[in-house]
Amino acid sequence: MLQLDAIEAGYAGLRVLHGLSLEVGMGEIVALVGANGAGKSTTLRAASGLLAPTAGRVLFDGRDLRGVQVHAVVRRGLVHVPEGRALFGPLTVAENLAMGAYHTGERADGVLELFPRLAERLGQRADTMSGGEQQMLAIARALMTRPRLLMLDEPSVGLAPLMVSAVFAALASIRDSGVAILLVEQNATQALALADRAYVIESGVITLSGTDLADDDRVRRAYLGR
Ligand SMILES: Nc1ncnc2c1ncn2[C@@H]1O[C@H](COP(=O)(O)OP(=O)(O)O)[C@@H](O)[C@H]1O
Ligand SMILES: [Mg+2]
């Protein structure tokens, strides 16, 4: 479904991704784990069109996304929930969901069933909610675009353990409903437990990949602290 092929990308004067390749197939949860600064967020930006790769290709459904605007990428079914969530803080939960549904007219019933906490808070300002509730809202808003692939940048950051479990349980339901997920996390333990497959990124390249990375000695030492 999504294929990053030998991507080079970065910022003025700084090359961050050095020939990075990965893929996500239909209906799978793929985790991308790695240390702070390894290039995880940059990878998602390159995939969603926020950042133009200087070399390599991004293919979605086999079509090259070069030059395709972010909103058009979303319409094709690829949505990115960035680090920090990018909610409309002064707007209510219901208004944030409506923004997500702008092009699709999607009804909120499905996401409110998935996140009952949001159903109780439709009239609350987004910026007055807890970190976990805001993360749920960001995911719910992304689902209103009716994606086939949802990319999440560190959804567990700053959340209490129970909230992390609630968010990750929702991700499993989303995958089971047929939406593929690319999950970027520093919290490798839970990400690897949830994912069907995973990649390790180090200094802008993929150094390991597979279905059982939590059992890999190198991954255990470097990312799982055991
Ligand atoms: N907007 C930016 N401008 C310049 N450098 C950036 C920007 N965003 C990230 N970087 C740099 O790119 C590298 C990779 O960052 P990032 O992709 O955010 O890593 P990660 O998400 O794995 O922590 C880091 O050295 C970071 O300082
Ligand atoms: Mg990041």
Summed over residues and divided by their number, the pLDDT gives a mean of 94
Q: Helicity, in percent?
A: 25-40%
CATH architecture: 3-Layer(aba) Sandwich
Can you tell me the CATH class?
Answer: Alpha Beta
- Detail the poorly predicted runs: none
| The number of domains | 1
CATH homologous superfamily grouping: P-loop containing nucleotide triphosphate hydrolases
Shape: globular
Distance between the termini: 34 Å
Task: Indicate the structural class.
Answer: alpha/beta
Radius of gyration: 17 Å
By DSSP (H or I, 4+ residues per run), the number of helices equals: 9
Number of strands: 10
Proportion of residues in β-strands: 25-35%
Kindly report the spatial arrangement of strands forming the biggest sheet.
Answer: 6-7-8-3-9-10
Bound molecules: adenosine-5'-diphosphate, magnesium ion
What order do the helices and strands follow? EEEHEEHEHHHHEHEHEEH
> What would the CATH topology be?
Rossmann fold
Largest sheet: 6 strands, mixed
Descriptive notes:
The chain has helices spanning 40-48, 70-76, 93-100, 109-114, 116-119, 131-143, 161-176, 188-194, 217-224, and strands spanning 2-11, 14-24, 29-33, 55-60, 63-64, 78-81, 149-153, 180-185, 197-202, 205-210. By secondary structure, it is α/β, with parallel strands linked by helices. The chain has a single domain (2-224), classed as Rossmann fold (3-Layer(aba) Sandwich), CATH 3.40.50.300. The protein is globular, with a radius of gyration of 17 Å. The relative contact order is 0.19. The mean pLDDT is 94. Bound molecules: adenosine-5'-diphosphate (ADP) and magnesium ion.
